[in-house]
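Subject: Protein transport protein SEC23 structure
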Amino acid sequence: STSSNPRQLCFFLFSYDQLLAAPSPHPSPTVASHSLHSVRRLYAAAATGERQGFLVNPSRAQGCTSTTRSSSRDIRASQGVSRASAAKMDFEALKEQWSEVEDRDGVRLSWNVIPSSRMEASRLVVPIGALYTPLKEKPDTPLLQFEPVTCKQPCRSVLNPFCQVDVRARVWICPFCLSRNQLPPHYKDITANAIPPELHPANTTIEYRLSRPAPAPPIFLYVVDLCQEEDGLSSLKESLVMSLSLLPENALVGLITFGTMAQVHEIGYEGCAKSYVFRGSKDYSAKQVQEMLGLTSSGMRPGVQLQPGRQMPMGPASRFLLPVQQAEFQLTKALETLQKDPWPTASDRRSLRCTGVALSVAVGLMESSFQNSGGRIMLFAGGPATEGPGLVVGPELREPIRSHHDIDRDNVKYYKKALKFYDNLAKRTAHNGHIIDIFAGCLDQVGLLEMKGLCNSTGGHMILTDSFTSSMFKQSFIRVFEKDGDENLLMGFNAVLEVLTTKELKVTGLIGHAVSLNKKSISVGETECGIGNTCSWKMCGIDPKASYGIYFEVASQGPVSHQQTPQKGMMQFLTYYQHSSGQFHLRVTTIARNLSGPAGDPAIAQSFDQEAAAVLMSRIAVFKSEVDDGPDVLRWVDRMLIRLCSRFADYRKDDPSSFRLEKNFTLYPQFMFHLRRSQFLQVFNNSPDETAFDRHVLNHEDASNSLVMIQPTLDSYTFDQNGGMPVLLDSASIQPTHILLLDTFFHILIFHGETVAEWRKAGYQDQEGYENFASLLEQPKDDARDLITDRFPLPRFIVCDAGGSQARFLLSKLNPSTTHTTGPYGGAGATSAQTIFTDDVSLQTFMDHLMKLAVSGTN
């Protein structure tokens, strides 16, 4: 059985490297053991800047960085800070305001003062962008039980705290189109002291429970690969049976299995096990699927409304998709009787696996009867597709699956055809409002690179694990079905996001898991960044952590006229989605930011949120990586960084030693340094599937998690301190008597220094009088459990020693300040720090070149 307690995961995955070395001098014994205190985990990167001399007011490593593991989501974007106060306001006070706004609205902006002219905006280098988490969990978000008050066509903005209201005339003025609108009759009793919730200044984010019910309950269609080993299949069956108890009772559920053939199980037939078989080598059209399954007369046509409490009309699809409470016995029986695909496989060949046909049949089944109803197609793949449409590798083992090198040389036999097949399938699925999740349980690649569009276009989950027997898969799968306090699933279906702006701003695009709805409005900009030329996107699947990068341009050609009160640019985000309770909801977030004054207004520079900017720029870089060559993307990242530093740093021309950055710019170069070295842009030593998975997760997470992916956090544990202390992500942080805890988001790694490893192998932690050493070994494990508790997908947990094979996961992330070229490796002058054998430049060298180029005036 699967443990539902993620804290227990650590114990399942501990694996220590066995190193044969004589123990060095043992630790000093003490009876008193250290107690673990709560630790604020920081990036501790600013100390590097202090050494390199590019900070204006360098601080201690612990205090200058702005993101913590426990409170990293507290560094956010401010709303409506006046230019006069911003000029005087301390940076820490600004961060506190930004923190409050992200907690309230789920929004972080790269610039919190908007340039008043297009010319001024072009000089910012980093685009104006918002990182928005629509369903960010906030217990006190008001839920209104009535329809929203909207502006007249074509604006359709929603009543919000920034509207001007004439309580006597019962009229409100829309701040987006300046139209006058009559308040509805039930607002007749409002006064200046008694206003409705949506006009309250604190309710810039508000949610409505709409009267429109969902056309059908949530649908979950399992698509299971039978071409896998018995232990993997058995473990997967246990997880699937367990998941039935986590679904809402009225949820519809179905089963498709595939190997050489694809089988649609008719769980509504009680006489015996009955299924419809599709040949794995044939490409079936949607019409053929519907005819073969007998779905030509649909029971749930698009647009049919289901009244709350009424029985759903039973159509032909009810033979394959039934409510859980009705089908649980039949489905459990069908799952438990599943056997490995019986088709014989020679020792020199791969199993024939028709993944493409199975997915095509699943999409056809859902779209025929439940179009525009919330539903998930959950694919469990144990290997790559080797048969039929969508195959990614041939069945012969002597033929290797494609690598990044093969793709770069265009030496790919199946790649383009498979990519086109799955992209077309993704477009159909997104149009129907359904979600596709991919759970991969295989040591080899399964074809995520070709299938990535299925998840990226529909807002589905992508989980990459070594086996379905691993705790990493089991715990991640359980967390898909997490529920809120009212026992509703923490997931939204059939979601649509629309963005409205005032005349000063235009939307240029969105980067995230969505598809364009091609809706044009006066809010759509001339340029395009990401998925552009629209102000509305369809996400299909959305959850409380799903975040989207939305980019803007300044529309006005000249500066605004001087006024007593600063003018504001405004954005309104409208998120319609099907709540798992069965009703449609609308969440509205409205934010306003001041426009800058005359050219050169210092308030613009002071409003820069370097963390939000780093995440928004990394999304653009990853988006470019999908279509451009890797070196071109790296050059673009370098150009943007040099231009930004040249624009906002303080320096004397051609004098790098005079280079200084203000405090809210100091971490940005480090983020870009680590982004350049990250697996998001450097594909060397990564498979195409791993690259697709990593980029998928980056485009889903919020600012704090994305920053951990870009620049991992590192904590050090030793005897002379209480708990973990944040240290530099640098090779100098590796010391023989220290334990390090690395969090890359995808991996949680505990690294024992050489001396600590020798003490542990000698068994001192088990001896009386060495309780302090036993406590030291436990502290990083306890902190690792805390990190794993709410992480999705579950990270890989690694415990290693200095010199061990898995130490490479740590060494690859560290800034190589001590390499074989920087000191007398192994000689009398060698330091105690770890020497890294690499040709990569260090952060110090990177900053030296950056300062030289930024001050040259020729960048």
